[in-house]
Amino acid sequence: MVSSRVRGKLGGKSGSRPAKAGGAEQEVSLYQADKIRFHRAADLMRLDDRARAALSEPRREIIYNVPVMVSQSRNPAENGRAKSFLAYRVQYNNIYGPYKGGLRYHPQVSLDEVKALAAAMTWKCPLLEIPFGGAKGGVAIDPMQYGPADIEALTRRFTYEMLTDIGPDQDCPAPDVNTNEQIMDWLYDTYCMHASDKFNVCNAAVVTGKSVACGGLPGRAPATGQGLSLAIREWAKDHKKKPSSLRVAIQGYGKVGSYAGIFLEDMGMKLVAVADVRGAIANPRGIDARKLAEYVKGPGGGSVAGYPGAAKVSDDEFFSAKAEVFIPAALENSVTARTARLLKCQVVAEGANCPTTLEGDEVLAERGIDVLPDIFANAGGVAVSYLEWLFNHGTHLFDLAYVAKFLSDRYERNYKVIAEAVRKYKTDWRTACYIVSLGRIGEKIVHRGLYP
Ligand code: GLU
User: Fold this and answer.
1) Ligand 1 pocket, 122 CB below 6 A?
2) Minimal CA–CA distance to 185: which of 159, 166, 162?
3) Which atom of ligand 1 sits closest to the CA of residue 379?
4) What sign does the dihedral 297-303-304-308 (CA atoms) show?
5) Does 102 contact ligand 1 (Cβ within 6 A)?
6) Which end of the chain is more exposed for a tag (fewer CB within 10 A), N or C?
7) Is the CB–ligand 1 distance for residue 385 below 6 Å?
8) Alpha-carbon dihedral of residues 309, 310, 312, 318, nearest 10 degrees?
9) Better-predicted residue by pLDDT, 9 or 390
10) Residue 198's pLDDT is what?
């Protein structure tokens, strides 16, 4: 069994984590955690048997060998030599629409992790009524150890290996951890070099999160953080809280965390604590979200550590910060039973995928802390990917105002549906999200029937 690993120094010790499943202490991987959550929701809602069978495992798990001639490694012994990297694409389910999901480049990418993340995409898209299925991919590589020429060669060879598996209406990758617009542009270009010119007009739809020059949408980059802020806005409205009464702590100040901080600040909330793998900072009087984002991109060299407008704090002090809203926007498994006990918040809004362990969930539930789960809270990214995909099919043009209204409307109406499921099933937000999503996908399966 591949067990999930805690990454970075926040969130606990590295190594596998024990979890109680079926009463016994045992190792639970990220994928197994998804299965436990899936079956819990399926039992509660009495999901149709056909839907449960079709959705309980991925349709396809593909493992690729990606050989690359390395030229810019930090390890001089690797330069001028060929190296093989393991890569994955898991196509979990496409009943709801074409497979869709990001590609990550990270040394700890494994089949188990990609399966869990592909499942998360499958549950995520229906929650904002986005007609995509779920997939995910990744390469087991530490991209920080290689230069741009190596990353380009890796991306182009990986795209070539995936050629028959991806396509504008088949499976469309997107950015994720350590991948960006440039990598999506290389993927797009490689795909075009091999696809028929006859279909050229739609080829850009093979991947989203591209640069604007290559058919990307200007609103795509902020979209995940923007969506996260809208999920929190709906929770605040529902709980009759004024934005100005809410303080926010964010773990991870990359693309998701920083945009969430900026959008929440614009709504009137106050950012009071921020952490990343290199350090944690706090200021009860407030941290300017935009200035901090500029600092991270400039003098901070990629980290919030050393930001002059706040004091340095320990990781535990960061988790214990007096903030009503806590946003994990780093990597998986950062909210564990231990860190969940430290939190002083009223709501956890998950910016990262899979940031809360099963035990973390239990502690948060015992303590009466709501969790707006990843599959709803961070769905803004794939929602705007859908607009980019429509745009690339050549029929629609969307400006920033359209993107903002689209996201706002989708969050407003789907929050209400999920809140209704929380009440009806007397359950937590995560289980309610699974129930709403499985209900929407399951309905299609029941109408279509199981083949043959
Ligand atoms: N990687 C993002 C996610 O986890 C976006 C996926 C997409 O746009 O297809 O939701």
Assistant:
1) no
2) 159
3) 10
4) negative
5) yes
6) C
7) yes
8) -140
9) 390
10) 65
pLDDT at 315 over 90: yes
Q: How far is the CA of 175 from the centre of ligand 1 (A)?
A: 7
- CA-derived radius of gyration, the chain: 21
Residue-wise burial string across 13-43, b where 16 or more C-beta atoms lie within 10 A, e elsewhere: eeeebebeeeeeeeebbbbbbbbebbebbbe
Task: Name the residue type at position 90.
Answer: V
Rounded to the nearest angstrom, the distance between the alpha carbon of 23 and the centre of ligand 1 is 34
E strand residue ranges, 78-209: 82-93, 99-100, 103-106, 134-140, 171-172
- Ligand 1: atom nearest CA of 175 is 1
Looking at ligand 1, which atom is closest to the CA of residue 353? 4
Domains within the chain, CATH numbers bracketed: 58-205 (3.40.50.10860), 223-377 (3.40.50.720)
210/266 Cα distance (integer angstroms): 27
Which residue from 101, 140, 96, 103 is spatially nearest to 121, judged by alpha carbons?
A: 101
- pLDDT tens profile 5-22: 333 333 333 333 333 333
Pairing of strands 270-276, 370-372: unpaired
* Cβ 86 vs Cβ 139: under 8 Å: yes
Tens digits of residue pLDDT in 7-63: 333 333 333 333 333 333 336 999 999 999 999 999 999 999 999 999 999 999 999
Ligand 1 contact, 353 CB (< 6 A): yes
**In whole angstroms, how far apart are CA 279 and each of 181, 300, 428?**
27, 11, 32
| Ligand 1 contact via 101 beta carbon (within 6 Å) | yes
Question: How remote is the CA of residue 373 from the centroid of ligand 1, in Å?
Answer: 15
pLDDT at 202: 78
Answer yes or no: is the C-beta of 381 below 6 A from any ligand 1 atom: yes
Q: Which atom of ligand 1 is nearest to the CA of 208?
A: 8
Tokens of 238: 């529902």
Which segments of 110-147 does DSSP mark as H helices, in order? Answer: 111-127
Q: What's the CA-to-centroid distance between 313 and ligand 1, angstroms?
A: 32
- Of the residues 100, 115, 124, 136, only one is catalytic, namely 136
Backbone angles phi, psi at 130, to 5 degrees: -95, 120
136 included as an active-site residue: yes
Q: Return all residues near 226 (Cβ < 8 A) that are at least 6 apart.
A: 219, 259, 260, 263, 380, 404, 407
- 392 and 202 Cβ atoms separated by less than 8 Å: yes
Measured in angstroms, how far is the CA atom of residue 334 from the centroid of ligand 1?
A: 20
Residue with the smallest CA separation from ligand 1 atom 7 is 382
In angstroms, rounded to a whole number, what is the distance separating the alpha carbons of residues 76 and 443? 56
